[in-house]
Amino acid sequence: MSALCMVSKLCRSVPAVRCIKATHIQPCLRRTTVTLTGEGVQRLAGDEVPELGRKWVGRWLFGCSGMVFGAVVIGGLTRLTESGLSMTDWHLFGKRPPLSQAEWEREFAQYQQYPEFIMKNKEISLQEFKFIWWMEYGHRQWGRCIGTAFLLPAAYFWHKGWFTRALKKRVVACGALIGFQGLLGWYMVKSGLEKERFTEPSDVPRVSQYRLAAHLGTAFVLYSLFLWNALGITNPPQAIKQVTTQAIKFRRLAHLTKGWVFLTALSGALVAGLDAGLVYNSFPKFADRWIPSDLLAFSPTLRNFTENPTTVQFDHRILGTVSLGLATALMVWSRRGVKLPPRAYMAASALGGMAWMQVGLGISTLLLYVPTALAAMHQSGSLLTLSFAIWLTHELKHVKKLPK
């Protein structure tokens, strides 16, 4: 009776509301929709979102994923140009760049107190320092732009009621990841500034490969969350008329491939952190051997998998080859008559094609001794490969179980 009273009061208090017959009250309450003809706006309660809000939220999520993609590219260039240790302090909201010659000299003097200058860059000029400083400054400021581009629209959309309950939780998780990523970035840079880590003359000042892998891995997770939710809002997965056993197996292989691509990308972070791409610049053999002689040179043995450049490069090659095999299998299988949603065929072909391109970029980068442009394209290619794997698994969301 209380629900009937509420609807009755609403009809009396808002003249523009269409009258609702008593026999249709219950279905209307289940849908939780009230139409205001005077404003021409449909107000939706519960988990329903107006079409305009859905479109803008989807665009915003795609924009955030694009900005994270850009951060990965800029971060790769920062590392390849060895610019990451040029800024030796960190401020939550950033700091203005030096404006005068005196300020630049003061910034340069601060850099000269740390291992990278002392052990490696003693001959660097102020002009050369300015280049690496601007690279690192640009990377940090881009990260802050991501935080702003995420936070302000998120607050507005939340206020407008354009987030479903499920999406609210994901938005909070993405916001937490952005904050964590910023702190993790400084934690990574700090490892390259710690003088006690570099005590031997042969030591090369660089950030910890573990922290670099964590920093890159977090960026990949954040990008994946943005992209997955954007696809879910703007391009819901297509239905499939009949779910078959082959389709279910195909979906499982697609998820396995996605995870394997992510793992391969993380191993690439270890390669970057140890400069392992400069150890053996031949393919497919390691110099004249299929298995390098120094594969397990460190003791204990487990250290080799994260600290021995030879082992790290060897593992990355193996993981990349397996990723290529899995992506190729999906592409071929999709053309062999397995029943999938229409867009899934396109996604499988895109994934297979990108995997071959990525392996080609990796081999070229290795053989040419890691040129900056090719290495940056290879790192970006890993994120593109993951993107196509995410798209494919998104299109297979309705391929879950056989009909009873």
Automatic annotation (TrEMBL):
Pathway: Porphyrin-containing compound metabolism; heme A biosynthesis; heme A from heme O: step 1/1. Its main location: membrane. It catalyses: Fe(II)-heme o + 2 A + H2O = Fe(II)-heme a + 2 AH2. Its cofactor is heme b. One of its GO terms (biological process) is heme A biosynthetic process. It comes from the Eukaryota. The keyword Transcription regulation does not apply. It is found in: Membrane. It is a multi-pass membrane protein. GO terms for cellular component: mitochondrial inner membrane. Keywords: Heme biosynthesis, Iron, Membrane, Metal-binding, Oxidoreductase, Transmembrane, Transmembrane helix. InterPro entries: COX15/CtaA_fam (IPR003780), HemeA_Synthase_type2 (IPR023754). One of its GO terms (molecular function) is metal ion binding. The chain crosses the membrane at residues 60-80, 141-159, 171-189, 209-231, 259-280, 316-333, 345-370. This is Cytochrome c oxidase assembly protein COX15 homolog.
